[in-house]
Design goal:
The chain is of the alpha+beta class. The chain folds into two domains: 2-53 and 240-387, no CATH class; 58-234, no CATH class. Helix content is 54%, strand content 19%. It contains 13 helices and 15 strands. The strands form four sheets. The protein has a six-stranded mixed sheet with strand order 5-6-12-8-11-7. Strands 1, 2, 4, 14 and 15 form a five-stranded antiparallel sheet that branches. Helix 1 crosses helix 10 (292-323), helix 2 crosses helix 10 (292-323) and helix 8 (234-271) packs across helix 11 (328-335).
Length: 388
């Protein structure tokens, strides 16, 4: 153990003798690790938000199409769908999007009857009772964007130009920021008045199926009964989210390929051979009694020190980029809807897969490139190495 510690100490001394080269390699190395880790954690955070969002969503959403466009659905279809074998409850939902001119963002207005009360945590106010008839509850993102608190009014312009200003009676959060960040919940009657939706129509129908294995069968029966209906299952939405994030993450991955290529050139240059000074140093060590295995151990320690410092620095930089700066480098591409939703923060989580992929793409190639030329020099006659 004492011998290994001395070799380790000598490796540290070797690196300290060339501080400029040591720091440049660590800088480039750390930036590469930070970029890869940031992208992976950012995309995974959005996937996790999407899964939280869909955890309590209905198995099937039934919409009505006309001319390839989404239209309002007749509520009378709910009873016929409920009669299909295997179907549980069928809930007509009233909701829609509203562009808010003061903030330049798009808010989601939702009917109170469709609100998942069990998943909400109120930061201000509480779950409203009768006072909710003339009020509204809003997500924390809307409250931050409009500087609203309980008791304030939220002006909303109706479809006919009339102004409706419900009083805020509660501000809430949920397990998914995508769900509640831009959400404004109104009483269903008031929401119909804002959007001009007749009492016999709904935005869509939420269908619950008793057996998850029968979802596809129920969806097929609905489409056969109403040719103008479009059924969207929970699994289809989840696959769409995954595909969207994979595609957006792929854009940045393609851009970062140049960074990976630059690092590969650095590793290749390192692997093609040692400098004359390094070659003579190894020859001197061999001449003073060092074994080839000890020389290899020395170079292994040097590569491991550089890789470990760079890897940890890169992971820390990735966390700082995502937590303190909210991933501003990737945000506009990965979010996609950033111009529509109020700004919201995500919580990146560092998992084993991120560490494994970053390590395999950076640590392993560098350490291997450090060992190959050292092995060639260690088996060279010391006299030849000293003369070179």
């Amino acid at each position: 153990m004492r011998r290994h510690l001395r070799i380790f100490d000598f490796a540290v001394a070797n690196l300290r003798r060339r501080p400029a080269k040591f720091l440049v390699v660590i800088l480039v190395y750390s930036i590469l690790v930070a970029a890869i880790a940031s992208l992976m954690m950012y995309v995974n955070a959005f996937r996790r938000e999407a899964r939280f969002l869909l955890a309590e969503s209905p198995e099937i959403i039934v919409q009505r199409l006309r001319g390839g466009r989404h239209e309002l659905s007749p509520i009378e279809r709910a009873e016929a769908i409920r009669a299909i074998r295997g179907v549980g409850t069928v809930t007509p939902r009233v909701w829609g999007y509203y562009f808010d001119p003061p903030t330049g963002t798009t808010l989601t207005l939702w009917g109170a009857d469709s609100l998942p009360h069990e998943s909400l945590v109120f930061e201000e106010g509480e779950m409203p009772g009768e006072e909710f008839i003339n009020g509204c509850v809003i997500g924390y993102g809307v409250a931050d964007a409009r500087f609203l608190g309980t008791g304030d009014r939220l002006p909303i312009k109706g479809f006919d130009g009339s102004l409706f200003a419900p009083r805020v009676v509660g501000i809430f959060r949920s397990s998914s920021s995508l769900l509640t960040n831009d959400l404004v919940v109104l009483h269903t009657d008031h929401l119909r008045r804002v959007f001009g939706i007749a009492p016999d129509l709904a935005t869509d129908l939420a269908v619950e199926v008793h057996n998850s294995h029968e979802v596809a069968s129920v969806a097929k029966k609905i489409q056969e009964r109403w040719p103008d209906a479009r059924t969207i299952t929970r699994s289809q939405i989840l696959r769409t989210y995954d595909a969207a994030f994979d595609w957006r993450g792929g854009l940045w991955a393609a851009f970062m390929a140049s960074c990976v290529a630059a690092f590969a050139i650095l590793v290749w240059d390192k692997g093609t051979g040692l400098s004359a000074e390094e070659f003579r140093t190894i020859g001197l060590l061999k001449a003073t009694g060092w074994k080839s295995s000890e020389v290899m151990e020395l170079k292994l320690f040097e590569g491991a020190i550089v890789s470990l410092i760079s890897f940890l620095t890169g992971i820390i930089l990735a966390q700082v980029h995502l937590i303190w700066f909210n991933g501003f480098v990737f945000a506009r591409v990965i979010k996609g809807w950033s111009v529509e939703f109020p700004s919201f923060e995500i919580t990146p989580q560092l998992d084993a897969s991120t560490l494994l992929i970053c390590g395999s793409m950076s640590v392993a190639p560098y350490v291997a490139a450090n060992l190959l030329p050292s092995w060639r020099a260690s088996i060279t006659d010391p006299d030849v190495a000293l003369r070179s």
